[in-house]
Amino acid sequence: MITLDRLTPIGRLGKPHGINGEINAYLDVDIDIDSLKRIILMIDGIYVPFFIASMRQKRSDTFIMALDDINNEREAAELTNHPLYVLTSDNVIAEDDIDEDDRGLYASDLIGFTVIDDATRQTVGEITDINDSTENVLFVVATPSSATVYLPVADEFITEIDTDRRILRMNLPEGILDL
After folding, report:
1. Any idea where the Ribosome maturation factor RimM PRC barrel domain is (predicted)?
2. Mean pLDDT by 10 residues, the chain (179 residues)
3. Which among 147, 129, 148, 125 has a CA at the least distance from the CA of 138?
């Protein structure tokens, strides 16, 4: 049986990519892609290995992954937002990325954070996903009124990231919430 103490977190799965079971994978660490043969996901309270059928790079920290036995969009959608693990013994993490403190913060790390607009001091909503389907990467934010807003992932708008309280403060351009 696989236990958490044998695992290393490497990122999370995003939304399905297409209809054939491929899924976006957001990686928080540099991985030796050629040696990555399987990932581990928690399914119904146990850690389950999934073997990788194919994997290709989409962006610097995003990959499109096909897993054995995941054959359609519905099956892939069931894995959305699952944390991704590898067996520590698989040694797939690049040597220069082993120190977690030096790895930086990725947009995908902010999923689940609450966005606060600095100008109004009001809560905008919670980041539920990252949209990287266009040239400009966007936070997908669910507002308290159940609407969805898209905010640019751009350093010039981010004023503070409080990882302890899971709050992202932003200086938003006027009118962006009305789009």
Report:
1. 108-176
2. 88 92 90 86 92 88 91 94 90 61 69 93 94 86 93 91 92 86
3. 129
